[in-house]
Write a structure and sequence with these properties.
elongated; two-stranded antiparallel sheet; mainly alpha; 2 domains; 248 residues; binds zinc ion
């Protein structure tokens, strides 16, 4: 976000430097820069906060070449961002987050889950916090990401039910297997894949919320209720064509 902001501000610096025919650039040149060269003008106290921030980017700009930031003669924020950011390793699960129209709250929970960052009791106990290790959804095994998604008999029933609703003749696999499948689906543009990715995210989120409700509010509900809740959540974020797929 910080680097994207810098890239967007660089565009303003580029405009102040080269787009001298623009009225707002003429205004800045006349009243703020007092006809001084933008690359050498000193930053003074009577300049606005915004202009000071833009001018401070000249330090960054020295490391970059204007020519490398242009696309068809126009400043490209994307190119600037990539140059500032540098080469970063792409994570496998990126499309589950970026290519997914599920609710933001469900994508956030999936984002934590794929990195094993949800505060499941196996992790909490490692922080020397006393807690009940047993999964409160099935009360048979210890809670972990792998157990919750989808070794647990309760959550398996939810995901199996949703798979069936989507027309898949298979049962829930481990979290790693399911994550791999949803990664592949997130690469596809087909209607069914789009719905599948949303369904997975809402299922993970709904199961996590249910787990919290049992622990903190002592309220439980059946897998059938959760299945309907997930479908409702997905339907809320679907367009008309996708929604037709849900009621089939
Ligand atoms: Zn369980």
């Amino acid at each position: 976000m910080e680097n994207w902001n810098k890239a967007a501000m660089l565009k303003l610096l580029w405009a102040i430097t080269f787009k001298t025919d623009k009225l707002w650039v003429k205004w800045i040149a006349a009243y703020c820069l007092r006809r001084h060269d933008v690359s050498t003008v000193g930053i003074t106290n009577n300049m606005s906060w915004h202009l000071k921030k833009i001018l401070k980017l000249r330090e960054l700009r020295v490391q970059l070449n204007w020519e490398d930031l242009l696309l068809n003669g126009k400043f490209s924020i994307k190119k600037a961002y990539k140059l500032i950011q540098g080469e970063m390793q792409k994570v496998q699960w990126r499309r589950i987050i970026c290519n997914n129209r599920a609710s933001p709250k469900s994508k956030f929970i999936v984002w934590l889950a794929v990195q094993n960052r949800l505060p499941t009791t196996d992790r909490i106990s490692r922080w020397n916090v006393e807690c009940q290790l047993q999964c409160r959804l099935c009360d048979t095994q210890n809670e972990s990401i792998q157990h919750l998604f989808f070794e647990c008999s309760f959550s398996t029933e939810v995901w199996n039910g949703l798979l069936q609703k989507m027309g898949f003749n298979r049962t829930a696999g481990s979290f790693d297997v399911e994550s791999r499948i949803v990664c592949l689906k997130a690469h596809s543009k087909s209607l069914k894949s789009r719905v599948y990715v949303m369904m997975f995210s809402e299922a993970v989120h709904t199961i996590w919320c249910q787990r919290n409700s049992v622990i903190f509010e002592n309220t439980s509900c059946s897998p059938a209720v959760l299945i309907n809740r997930v479908i409702f959540q997905v339907a809320c974020n679907c367009n008309e064509t996708e929604r037709r797929l849900l009621v089939q």
